Every structure is written in C-alpha cells, then in structure tokens.
Amino acid sequence: MTISNSIHVSSMSLLPSPCRKNTQSRGLGSFQDYMARSTAMKAAGLILALLIFTFFSLAASSSNNQIQILNAERRIDLSSHIVKVFLTLKVENVGTSPASEIFLAFPPSHADQLALVKAQAAIGKKKKKSYVHLDVNPTQLPDAPNGTKYFSISLLNPLSSGETATLEVLYILTHSLEPFPAEISQLESQLVYFRDSALILSPYHIKQQTTFIKTPSTKVESFTRLEPTKFAGRELKYGPYEDRPPYSFSPVIVHLENNSPFAVVEELLREVEISHWGNLQITEHYKLVHAGARHKGVFSRVDYQSRASVKGASSFKHLLASLPPRVHSVYYRDEIGNISSSHLRTDYRKSELEIEPRYPLFGGWKATFVIGYGLPLEDFLFESPDGKRYLNFSFGCPLAQTVVNKLTIKVVLPEGSKDPSAAVPYPVEQRLETKYSYLDVVGRTVLVLEKKNVVPEHITPFQVYYTFKPIFMLAEPLMLASVYFLFFMACVAYLQIDISIRK
Amino acid sequence: MAVTKTEPINSSSNKPSSSSVSMKSDLMSALSLKSLKLKTKQQELLIRVSILCLVYVLAFITRLFSVLRYESMIHEFDPYFNYRTTLFLTEKGFYEFWNWFDSESWYPLGRIIGGTLYPGLMVTAAIMYWGLRFLRFAVHIREVCVLTAPFFASNTTLVAYFFGKEIWDTGAGLVAAVLIAICPGYISRSVAGSYDNEGVAIFALLLTFYLFVKAVNTGSLAWGLGSALGYFYMVSAWGGYVFIINLIPLYVLVLLITGRYSMRLYVAYNSMYVLGMLLAMQIRFVGFQHVQSGEHMAAMGVFFLMQGFYFLGWVKHLLGDKKKFEALLRIIVTCAVGVGAIALGVGTASGYISPWTGRFYSLLDPTYAKDHIPIIASVSEHQPTAWSSFMFDFHILLFLFPAGLYFCFKRLSDATIFIVMYGLTSMYFAGVMVRLILVATPAVCLISAIAVSATIKNLTTLLRTKSKVSQTGSTKGASGGKGSSKALPDQSQPFQRNGAIALLFGAFYLLSRYAIHCTWVTSEAYSSPSIVLAARGAHGNRVIFDDYREAYYWLRQNTPADAKVMSWWDYGYQITAMGNRTVIVDNNTWNNTHIATVGRAMSSYEDEAYEIMRSLDVNYVLVVFGGVTGYSSDDINKFLWMVRIGGGVFPVIKEPDYLVNGEYRVDKGAAPKMLNCLMYKLSYYRFGELVTEYGKPPGYDRARGVEIGNKDIKLEHLEEAFTTSNWIVRIYKVKPPNNRW
C-alpha cells in the first residue's frame, strides 16, 4: 500500500497539474477498493495509470475538506540546538468517506532542516492507552501553496466518517536556530533566532490550537506577539487560537539565549569491518564544528581558566559517545597523534566514552578526530533462517546531542562474501566499493550507506545481509603458512645446492 | 563443584599427552643425539646465527620504549620535516618530490625541497612502505617512519658483526654486534620515532667502512664497487658523508706513509673514490661539491697522489737505476706539488673551489662557532661534549676503548689500522660536538669488542689448557687490557686458573652492568618524544602535557589555510608538519638573515616589531612559554640567542641592552628593554593575573623561579588568539592596521 502510494507520488510530480474539484465521492471509494485489490495496477497501461493518478490526486485534494483538526497542541523544545517539536493532533473525519491518510504541512524553509518525522497513534481509552507507530512518507500535493512540503501519515485503519483519532507527531529540525549576533566574543553568551509560525501550518481547518515554546533559559531578548501570547518561566505560549482556516500562517521570531553545545559533525565516516575470527572493528572519522555564533577576537586562557562556565559560555569541551557494551581497544586520536583527554566507562549494558577535543570549541572552531574500537562479533553477527549472515548494528552517530550533516557508513564485509544487501529503516543512498586490507588478494566488498542530516533519534538498528563460506577464513593463514614454508624450502635448497662455477 | 568436575578431565587428558610427551622426548633425544653429532663447526654456526638473531631482535625492541610508554609518534624537531616530506613522497610520487618547491616554509622565499635535502631516508621509508603495501600489509606511513630507525639499528648490528669479523675474528664480531645493539650513544638517535637521517646514516656509514676494509683486504673490485654503493647511500642520507670522504683518504695516506701500499689498496681506493664520486653527484644537494668544495679536496689529492705513486713505481721498475730515479723523483714531486698548489690557489681565488664552510671550521676549531656563527653555537647538540655525557653514552666502553686500541696495535694490519684511525678521529669529533658521539659509537663499540673478545678468549684458553708456559704472553696481553694484572704474574697453575676465573667474572659483571646501564639510559633519557611532556603529579600519577600538539592542531583547524606563522626557528618544522601552516623560518636555518629578522622582531618593542611583521606578512606569532609548568626550554630561556643572532645582522639590537650587569633576568630588576620587548610581552601577557604556585604572588614564573617584573602588559597591535591549557604555547594574532580615516 505504502509502496504503491509512493510510486504514485513520485510519478505524479511529472504530470502537469491536473484539474481539481468537481469530484464525486463514489469515484474515490471505487479507487480505494481497486488499489487494495489489485497489484496488477503497476503493469497497467500508461493511459490507465494516468487516469488513476488523476483520480487519486482529485481524491487527495478533496480529502482536505473532509478532515478537520479539533485540537492541536504543539510543544517546541529549543533547549538544545536540535529543535524537537511534539505535535498532538486530534483529527476528525467530517466527510462522508473513510480517510486513510493525514497530511502534515511544512513551510519550505523547514524542508531542508527537517531531519526526522515520526508519528504514532494513541489507541484505547485514557487508562489503557497504548501507542502504535505509523508510517510517514514525504509526499506532494498538487495545490501546495508557496512550495509547501507535505508528509502523509498512513493510518492503521481508515478513519470512517465521524470518527476521531489522536495522533502524536514528533519532528526534528536541525540548523534552524540562527545565531544573532552572528559573531560574539568569548565573554558574551550566544543568542539565536528561532523562526516559525504561531499558527500551525496545516492543510486542514483547525478548531483550536496552542503552541508552547520551551526555552533553555529564562533569558529571552524578544519575541513576536500574536495575542494571546504569554511568557512565563522558561515557556512561551502562543494561543489558544480558535478556528483557523487551512494554511493559516503567522510568522514569529523568538530571540533567545541558547548556550547549549552546537555540536555539528559535518562529516562522519563510520567504517565497520567484520572479521569472522571474532572481531568487529569500528573506525569513526569525525569532522566536528561548533555551528553556533562565530568566535571573534581574543581567546583568553586566563578568563577561560578562571570561570569557564561564564567566560566562555558558548563554548563546549566535553562530548559523550555511547558505545555498545563489551567494547575493547578503544582509541581516540587525530592526524597528528593520540589525544590523551578521554575516559571510558563500561558496564554490562553500555559503554560511555567521554572525550574532549584538544581545545575547547568556540563558534566556528573545528576539530577532526578518529574514534576506533573493537566489539565481540557474536553480539552483532547472526545467521538468518535462509542461511545468510547478517550484521545487526546501530545506525547514526554515537555522540550525544549532535547533528550529523553527512553520515557515511561503510560496512566492510570479509573477503569472499557475496550478495550484500542492507535493510535500513530510513531512505539512504547505497553503493558498493572494494577495499584492500591486510593480505587481501581479491579485496573486500564494502557496502556504503549515506544519509544526510542525521540526529540522535536516528539511532536504530539496521541489517546488512550477505553470504559467506567459512572456508574463506582459512585463505589468509594458509597463504602466510605457505609463504613461510616456501621461504624455508628456499633456504634449504640454497644451502644444499652448490651453485658456484668454481670447482 | 566445578573443581571436582574438572579434575578428572584434566587428569585423564594429561595422561595421553604425557605419554605423547615422553614419546616426543624420546624422539627429541634421538634428534639431539643426532644433532650432537653435528660437527663443531656446524654447532658454532648454529650458535652464532642464533646469537645474531637474538641481537637483531634485541636491537629492535630495546628502542621501543617510547612507543610503549607514549604512542607511535614522530619525535622532536627535524624528524617532523622528514615525516612531512616522506608523506609528500608517498602521496605524490618521486618526481613531484624531486621537483618540490615548498612555499610553506621560509615565507616569502620558499625552499626548493628536492634540491636541499638528503633524500635517502625518505626514499628508504617510502620503498619500505610501498613494499609492505604491495604485500598487502595495510600499514600507515607513520608506522613505517617510526620504526625505520630501530629497523636500521638492527641492520647495523649485522654490519657490526661482519666488520668485527673482518678486522679481528667472529668472536669480536659477535661482541661488537651486542655492544652496538644497546649502546646509548647510538640509541639516542635511533629510538622508535626518531625519524632522522642519522637513523639510516650510521648503518650506511658502517656498511661503507666495512665494504671498504673488505675491499682493501681482498683487493676485489666487487667489494670496492660495494663500498662505492654504500657511500652513495650514505651521501643520499646524511651530510656526515664528509667524514667518510676525509677519513678514507687519510687512511690511505697513512698506509702509504707506513709503507703498506699495495695493489689491493690501489684497487679499493680508486674504484671506491671514482665510482662513489660519480654516484654522489647524482644527489642534487651534493652536486659538484666533490670536485668543487674544499672539504672534498683531500680525497681528490690522495687520488692523484696514488696515481703518482703507482706511476713512480712503474718508472722505478723501468729505470732500475737508483740515482736517475731520485733525480726524476725530485723533478716530478716539485712539479706535482707546484701544479697542485697553483690549481688549488687558482681554484680558490676564482671561486671555483669553495672555501670550507663554517660547520667544517667549527669541527676543526671548537671555539670558531662561538665567535663567528651564533646560529650553530645556539644549538645545544653542537656544544662541546662534557665528560659526563661520554660516560653516559659509552659507560664501560670508555675504558675498554684504550684496551682495544692496545690489542689493535699488537696485531697491526690494514684493517686494524683503519679501525684505530676511525676510532681516534671520531673520538676527537665527538669531543668537539655532542651530536658526533653518534659517529664515534660504532668505532668505540668495535674496538671495545676487540678488547672484550680478546681478553675473554685469552682467559678461557688459559682455563682450558694444561700447559702454562705457552700462555704467559697472552695472559699478559689480557691483563694489560683489563688494567688489573696483579693476580696473574704468579706462575702456579691453580692460582692462575683462579685468577682467570675471577677476571672472567669481573668481565661478566662489567658487561652486565653495561647492559643494565644501557637499558636504564634508554628508558629514562632517550625515549621521550619531547612533543609530549610527561611529569609526575602530586600523587605520583602521570601527568601529560600535550600542549604542543594542542596548539599546532588549533592552528591547523582554526586559522585560514594561507596564514603565516612567525615563531623562533626551532618550531618551524613542527608547525608546517603538524599545523600545516606557512612559517617564516624553520630548522633548516639556511638563511641567517631571515632568522636574524625574526630574532630582531622578537627583541624589538611592539611597534617596531609590528613594522617588521607587517613587512613579512605575518598573521600569527607563536611563542613557547614555560612559566606556568616550569618547562625550562622555552623561548624566554632561548631569548638571548635571538638577540645575539638578530644583533649579528642588525646592529640595532645590542645584547647588553637586555642584560643587567651581565646578568639575564626577567624580574623587577630586569633591563627596561627586556621588560618591553615583544618576546617578553607575548610570553607574559596577562600572566600577572595568574597564581601559579600556592603561597607565591601572582605572576610567579616557575621556570625561572621569580616573580615577573612587568605585570601590566598591554598589547596594541597583537591580540591573544590561543593559549594552550598549560600555557606552554601561546599564539597571538597580528591585527590588521588601523583605518586611517
């Protein structure tokens, strides 16, 4: 269902904007049935497909009118540089036909900053509430005003007419706090702009809505007012606003203090090397940058030394990487050698590596480094029922509270493995490479996964499947042994054979 | 429970294994019986090969202290340049390397790297790296560079063995191999991470000498060619090749004078000199020096002398008449000397033959550098050697050396004459400059090995033989060598035997002391990378000061890629290698004026220095400061040399301005110019606010143990850009000029 949907969506963008309105609800119903039943649709002729897409788009646009949001509550958490937005929507189907999808709208400025959208539905009454994860897919709507971006939430059971459902949505924005002033000195604290709309952008009519913005400190320079607006403690409240039509938008700017570490990894390369002799070697190359307001002028060690929390408030020094348990041979270094400021704590559940870059990072300062460690293979490598082996490893960046602009994971399979395939819960780019490591003859297959804009919430397991014959494990020891054997044979031969020409 | 369970299993499993062991031991005993039947010669070979293998391994692993204690890293200053160029070579290939113009150093002059370095070390490391890569060993080039010196030290032990065998016997060779494997004088320049020219050069030096002696002994053209190749490798690796090209002619001359001239010598020297010279000219940095530089003229003179000698012998053979020959000889010698003198005079006058360089002069006259070339005198390793450092680096070898000389004179041959000359000349140079102890080390080890080997051999033969009469000569020799001969003159055999046993124990005791001393020196003195400083904390824990790398990495990451950094030349190589930034001067020190300009800037007032820095396009200034940690080799302690070198070119800078009554001080009583010069300001900027030690006033300098004299330092044209966590490195940014309007 979702797969065919996404096919629709992607093809639809190629179509000229089709005519809208004057649709009949019967057509929709028959269309839905048709889709549910038929998988032969993919093979249908072009004309038929065109016809169906037209129908679909008509249906989609019409569905805007049949859904309304009774109550929307939005909580924006600005306490770190990763902006988390929790959206609770109570939706009602006021139309006549059942609706299977709910659309979320985002202004185009948020489109690039959006790292993750997750949705879940609350099921059951108050006491026995449980949550079910829902699929969210980027989509496009034909009548999007001003380049609005959409995500569609696929409901588990289509919402029939008159029913209500509660949806909880979490979306995460990165790079959405703009430092202002853009350059600060060591003694100043960092102020940022946050831009959003006081009214939730939505293709639906919203009966009542409230937005809460949680700030990291009580210090807020200014904020746009749109009555009723209230600022108390560390919370800024917009609303409640009643009865707003679809696509209502009211831009607000909040200028606030945020001294949390703006740790951004511009590029992270994680290399996972599988050795069937029992080790999983991880090497992680970081390019870390402080993405907050740029440091200007003097860096004074006296000031920093005396009261780092005040005279250097915008800087950060400590980073925490959470590694799997039973980690061993951990190292932390860069191009010019070992960095001695790190601590490793291990227990049976997890390992924590506390690292400090060589120097505190002020705005715009960079640090590149490498973390490497080994893991016992049996914790991560399994055999699937069909005889394939698979690696089960966590996706994402182990550093806490960091954004990764570009994450590359390279899974180096042992020499001689075949048919690699990856199962990743997010859309990623994949390609294959070959790497030569110790004593390799044909080289190792490397499966490369790439994803942009990764946040800690992306840390979930992914799998890489491949086939491997254990006999290949012996190739390299045998090679070494035979070389030694040949060497000694050559020595013996040299000592035994008289090759002098003098007699 | 678990124990009771495992026990029977163990015992049951033990039984078959023990039976198999007994079976095996049967087999082994059969084998060993067989092996016992090995001829004595074969046994000796086996023992010798295994000793050599052990020494080979020992020489390698004794140099790994720093890797185990710190990390696999490049040490000190020059090795960073070598590492950087090796990196370039492996990345860009040989031709790019050969034609490399480095714009990152000596800004704005730059440096033609390919033409101003000895490429032997880099090429060696790169070839090893490529070889390992080809065999699919995924090593990093840094690991190769770090382990190059220990690897070549191991190879040196092999050469020492063969050399010792050539000049004395296999026993002396083995002892020489052991002695040189752990000798501190050599270890000081060849620990893991000390990726410097000397690491491979000592190997090349000894190899050249060995092959040359072999050529002299055999008269074989092949060995002569071998020594020419060894010389070529030496020339490509280190400027110390000048020692070879002067020692060998000297040796030939001595042989000529002592009447040991032979056809073997003729073949060996001519093949070595001609081929070696032609090969050496292929190194761009050396070029035509072999025919143009005064330092190489001795070799050429001896070459012509040899031809003349041979020619005369031929003429003498033809003439057969003594009087005629003497008359001819007189004419020829006069003519030859005249022509030679005129050629030399014309060559020198016309500038075709360059005069001796300052470094060469300072070798012949230890006081020369102090008076004329402050930049050579300012380097600590160019200072004359103290007795203590001889003792430190040679230990018992210092006493065995004269004993060995005695043995050499007792059994004089072409080979022993060579080693005696090598030993004596290199000992002289070792006395002139600390760093040249390195060159003397192989000779000292070889000669001492002769002493040890001959003594022990004499003593053991004494123990073995029954007859006493035939042994007196050798025991006397041995006792003379040991310098304690009181026990021996007695002729009664049991007493003599006891004396020999006692002496043997004494020798073993001394040698074991030597081994202990060497290990101790290696671990304590020569295995610190000097980039990372380690100290003991208050609770006995190890405190690491990694400030250098902190600063260099900060430069690398947070300054514009084209930023120019001014610092004293000591740190130039490190800044370009680790910080990847352009420097004004570095450890190459080829341009004294440029260094003097930096010295002048450091010792001027801020506004004058600003003008100089503007003219040099400087963006950042880096100073090393030990006032917080008590690190004594910082820029304030080096500052007088900056003044001297700066003043040597720019008379505006006068050393007395910085001294008070000839005393150098930084506290309140310091000279006013001292308290306000750039170096002082940059080192102590805002230091007056800091309490470094409990119970001392703020601004207490722990490196010099005084409270600083100027606590209120204001900077006008510079601003603090970065200071490392222990204040060891401080970086300042040069502000752009103020707007005029």
TrEMBL record, chain A:
Family that this chain belongs to: Belongs to the OST1 family.
Record lineage: Eukaryota, Viridiplantae, Streptophyta, Embryophyta, Tracheophyta
Name listed for the protein in its UniProt record: Dolichyl-diphosphooligosaccharide--protein glycosyltransferase subunit 1
Pathway noted in the entry: Protein modification; protein glycosylation
PANTHER family: DOLICHYL-DIPHOSPHOOLIGOSACCHARIDE--PROTEIN GLYCOSYLTRANSFERASE SUBUNIT 1B, RIBOPHORIN I
GO cellular component: oligosaccharyltransferase complex
Compartment annotation: Endoplasmic reticulum membrane
Protein's UniProt keywords contain Coiled coil: no
Annotated GO biological process: protein N-linked glycosylation via asparagine
Function: Subunit of the oligosaccharyl transferase (OST) complex that catalyzes the initial transfer of a defined glycan (Glc(3)Man(9)GlcNAc(2) in eukaryotes) from the lipid carrier dolichol-pyrophosphate to an asparagine residue within an Asn-X-Ser/Thr consensus motif in nascent polypeptide chains, the first step in protein N-glycosylation. N-glycosylation occurs cotranslationally and the complex associates with the Sec61 complex at the channel-forming translocon complex that mediates protein translocation across the endoplasmic reticulum (ER). All subunits are required for a maximal enzyme activity.
Subunit structure: Component of the oligosaccharyltransferase (OST) complex.
Residues passing through the membrane, by range: 478-497
The keyword Transferase appears for this protein: no
Membrane topology: Single-pass type I membrane protein
Organism expressing this protein natively: Salix viminalis
Protein keywords: Endoplasmic reticulum, Membrane, Signal, Transmembrane, Transmembrane helix
UniProtKB/TrEMBL annotation, chain B:
Membrane disposition: Multi-pass membrane protein
Pfam families: STT3, STT3-PglB_core
Signal peptide, first to last residue: none
Catalytic activity: a di-trans,poly-cis-dolichyl diphosphooligosaccharide + L-asparaginyl-[protein] = N(4)-(oligosaccharide-(1->4)-N-acetyl-beta-D-glucosaminyl-(1->4)-N-acetyl-beta-D-glucosaminyl)-L-asparaginyl-[protein] + a di-trans,poly-cis-dolichyl diphosphate + H(+)
Keywords: Endoplasmic reticulum, Glycoprotein, Glycosyltransferase, Magnesium, Manganese, Membrane, Metal-binding, Transferase, Transmembrane, Transmembrane helix
Location within or outside the cell: Endoplasmic reticulum membrane
Pathway where this protein functions: Protein modification; protein glycosylation
Manganese found in the keyword field: yes
Main location: endoplasmic reticulum
Regions that span the bilayer: 45-65, 112-132, 144-164, 170-188, 200-225, 231-254, 266-285, 297-315, 327-353, 390-408, 415-431
Class of this enzyme: transferase
Chain segments carrying region Disordered: 1-22, 471-491
Stored Gene3D superfamilies: 3.40.50.12610
EC number: 2.4.99.18
Domain Oligosaccharyl transferase STT3 N-terminal: 49-447
GO molecular function, one term: metal ion binding
UniProt xrefs under InterPro entries: Oligo_trans_STT3, STT3-PglB_core, STT3_N
Swiss-Prot/TrEMBL cofactor(s): Mg(2+); Mn(2+)
GO cellular component: endoplasmic reticulum membrane
Biased composition (Low complexity): 10-22
Domain STT3/PglB/AglB core: 564-622
Similarity annotation: Belongs to the STT3 family.
Assembly with partners or alone: Component of the oligosaccharyltransferase (OST) complex.
The protein's name in its UniProt record: dolichyl-diphosphooligosaccharide--protein glycotransferase
Originating species: Salix viminalis (Common osier)
